[in-house]
Amino acid sequence: MLELAERHHPAWERCRPAARTLLARNGCQVLGPDLATPSRVVIGWTPGGEPVGGTGQAIRIALAHGVPVLNLGRPELAGADAAWVVARAGALAEERP
Question: Where exactly are the structural domains of the chain?
Answer without folding.
Answer: 2-95
